[in-house]
Amino acid sequence: MAADTNSTMIDRAESAAAARPRVRAGGLTKARREAIAGYLFIAPDFIGLLLFVGLPMLLSLVIGFFDVNGFGTFTFVGLANYQRMAADPLFWQCMRVTLTYVLLLVPSLYVTGLGLALLVQKTNRFNTVVRAMFFAPQMVSVVVIAVVWQFFSGDKIGLAARFFSMFGLSVSILGNPSLALYTVVFVSVWFLMGFYMLIFLGGLQDIPQQYYEAARVDGATPTQAFWRITMPLLRPTSFFVLLVSLVAAVAGSQAFDLVYVMTKGGPANSTQMMIIYIYQQAFQYSAFGYAAAMSSILVVVLLALTGVLFLLTRGGRFDFE
User: Fold this and answer.
1) CA 293 vs CA 61, 67, 237: distances in Å
2) Do 152 and 38 reside in the same domain of the chain?
3) pLDDT tens digits, 152-208
4) Residue 58: inside a domain, yes or no?
5) What is the CA radius of gyration of the chain?
6) If we measure between CA atoms, which residue out of 251, 297, 302 comes closest to residue 276?
7) For residue 120, is it within any domain?
8) Residue 321 Cα to chain centre, angstroms
9) Number of folded domains in the chain?
10) Mind listing the pLDDT tens digit for each residue in 204-217?
């Protein structure tokens, strides 16, 4: 009896010892060592973000209160740059164009990206070729894309204008203030839709097929399966797509490079994005303080739009979370 009791006590002691975190000679548990290793891995990226993103944003906020001419002269002007901004009609025109561009581009990228992903969801040779074709524009520089589309849709000398002139029609695409912005949106969607197609494709492939099989057994139609299974389970992917496309529409390469090469903000400032106007004020007119103040306002607008997106989508979380 005593032997059984001693054996039980020994087993309990061994179990308790195994349950306790193992500590090496240095005094660090395994969990603490893993945490330190994780911090060391993210440290280079964090330092890079701090030096090349965080610090410039802070400096931009500070410079917005100064008159800077680019030659080392800093004159404190307080809120003068912001007062100038409020009275600048071109600033409000650029803000309106930027918001219109966002409202047109973000939903268009969501719909086209999801639609293409649904079309090429099944894995076969034909769909593999189609995926490569839609993603191909991402392999080319956005400047090259802009030059090609400018050659096609340019005012008077573009291929489209020459084609219509053969029939006695005078059609101006990039030269028409009413059409220029929609043309830029169309080219942006054509350029970016393959990228978002792949993101949605990854989200679709993560959805277990058993859900669709159970829905078919219950008599659900493909439309019902899409709205009751696909869309709810795509919430994290949808949120990521909306967030990335929102940032890209405000400050992405196609918002500057594409527009600047194709139209330079014209005609009549109809495609003048905020990011282009900031560039012009800083590097063409040497109004660095004014450009920094506008950059700060643009960041605030982007944060506000991101906050609205979080509220509308709950950050991509599922209903049960």
Assistant:
1) 7, 10, 34
2) no
3) 887 777 777 777 777 777 777 888 888 889 999 999 999 999 999 999 999 998 888
4) no
5) 28
6) 251
7) yes
8) 25
9) 2
10) 988 888 988 898 98
